Amino acid sequence: MDDTRRTAPARGIGTFSWRHLAAIAGPGLVAMLADTDAGSLVTAAQSGAQWGYRLLWLQLVLVPVLYIVQELTVRLGAVTGESHAGLIRRHFGTFWAWVSVSTLVVACIGALLTEMGGLAGVGAMLGLPSWASMAIVVVALTAMAVTGSYRSVERIALGAGAFEVVFLGVAVWAHPDLGEMGRQAVSIPLTDPKYMLLVSANIGAVIMPWMVFYQQSSVVEKSLKASDIATERVDTAIGAVVTQLVMAAVVVACAAALQHRGGTGSLDTVQQIADALTPVLGTAAGRVAFGVGISGAALVAAIVVTLTAARTLGELLGFGHALDQPMGEAPWFYVAYAAVLVAGAAFIVVGVDIVSLAVGVQVLNALLLPIVLGFLYLLARRLPEPFRLSGVYNVVVAAVIAVTVALGLYAGVAGLWR
Q1: What pLDDT, in 10s, does the model give residues 195-224?
Q2: CA separation (Å) from 274 to 134, 282, 286, 400?
Q3: Residues of 3-28 as b/e, b for ≥16 C-beta within 10 angstroms?
Q4: Residues 357, 114: contact at Cβ < 8 Å?
Q5: Contact (CB, 8 A) for 409 and 367
Q6: How large is the angle between the packed helices 84-92 and 94-125, nearest 10 degrees?
Q7: What is the DSSP string of 22-79?
Q8: Apex CA 190: angle with CA 186 and CA 194, to 5°?
């Protein structure tokens, strides 16, 4: 990091304007759209299928939690100009940097498998074998990274993620029973291990290790400064609301669709999730809506997860790790990026259960929260004034993180120990 940036005097967070937002928006929106990845959508679909509207409350409660967590990455990146792994190494040493990165790698591998699995599932609906779907995805995403810049890749990710909003229309089209929604909202089976497992999975589907690393690195790579914080906070807030509305919409759509069929159940494949929507949307519309939505979610998340893994490994291993560097300057970054994609695709071709994997990965994310959020909070407490967490807001952030970690751990352990 540039030492002048680290020691520069604080100038405040700047002021918000819509023009400024149009100029710098991206890190928050891309991170949040990637948050609603294939695994998250499958988890939301399973939540609605198995428990109706009883997990809808959690999607809304997680909006401020998601914003609070990701806003800290904006502060850290804009004020210090360093990536998350770099800050952990500087403040806590190389050992703890690798501990943190280990959690990141585990989360990235799991996430990428769910993204590839989701895309392979959509390919199967179109009659494509998994090897063909995976070949197309690997070649397309590698070509995008090699030939593009940070800005062009960000625009592609935003464009892909925008398809997720189709689920908002699907939820309305499913004609949910508002009375039943209200009744189930106050009938929450907190003592049921299967319900608690999905509570943990939904928390892990929203707060993911790779989102923290990605957004902070993107703020740095986009050269945002402390004076951009006020506007980037709005970028992050809009993303937090949109991503959780999409998650809620999938819960509602699947709950309503299965209730039209006379009850709840389990959706065990991408095909079954799509088929569950056909009674209310029609066969063609159901498949198209789900296929378009999950493809957009999986693509933006695959881009984010792969970039995050390659960037972080590049930084800790000492090779170039920026999209704006051509292949000649950062060959190992692009090799790592392509290798991660190929490895994820290979697992899918061999064959994995995407629905069980998706829920399992989100539970794993929840169990990793103490490490991820612990470092995030401690780093935010070490920022210079006036950016450091302090006063009443520090107490609020600490409480939110503590409750989120505790609920994620309790629900995960209770669900697994059934």
Answers
A1: 888 888 888 888 888 889 889 988 998 889
A2: 20, 10, 6, 35
A3: eebeeeeeeebbeeeeebbeebbbbb
A4: yes
A5: yes
A6: 160
A7: HHH--HHHHHHHHHS-HHHHHHHHHHHHHHTTTTHHHHHHHHHHHHHHHHHHHHHHHH
A8: 120
Nearest to 135 by CA among 310, 300, 341: 341
**The pTM of the whole model exceeds 0.90:** no
Percentage of the chain with pLDDT > 70? 87
* Under 8 Å between Cβ of 161 and 243: no
Q: How many CB atoms lie within 10 A of CB 276?
A: 26
Predicted confidence at residue 355, as pLDDT, reads: 62
- For 83, 115, 248, 359, the CA distances from 171, given in Å and listed in that order, are 38, 22, 9, 21
Q: How far is CA 417 from CA 218, 254, 403, 407, 414, in A?
A: 38, 27, 21, 15, 5
Interatomic CA distance for residues 232 and 76, integer angstroms: 12
- State how far Cα 353 lies from the chain centre: 20
Q: By the 8 A CB rule, do 197 and 64 touch?
A: no
Q: Are 415 and 193 in contact (CB under 8 A)?
A: yes
Is 50 exceeded by the pLDDT of residue 162? yes
Residue 328 and residue 320: Cα distance in Å, rounded?
10
Q: How confident is the model at residue 64 (pLDDT cuts 50, 70, 90)?
A: very high
At 367 the three-state DSSP class reads helix
Q: Check if the beta carbon of residue 226 is closer than 8 Å to that of residue 248.
A: no
Decide which of 350 and 194 is more confident: 194
User: What does the alpha-carbon distance between residue 192 and residue 174 come to, in Å, rounded to a whole number?
Assistant: 28
pLDDT band, residue 120 (cuts 50/70/90): confident
The number of CA neighbours under 13 Å toward the Cβ of 354 is: 32
CA gap 114, 297 in Å, rounded: 11
Number of other residues whose CB lies within 10 A of the CB of residue 365: 30
- Give the model confidence (pLDDT) of 353-379 as tens digits: 666 666 677 787 888 888 889 999 999
Task: Quote the CA–CA distance of 297 and 249 in Å, as a whole number.
Answer: 14
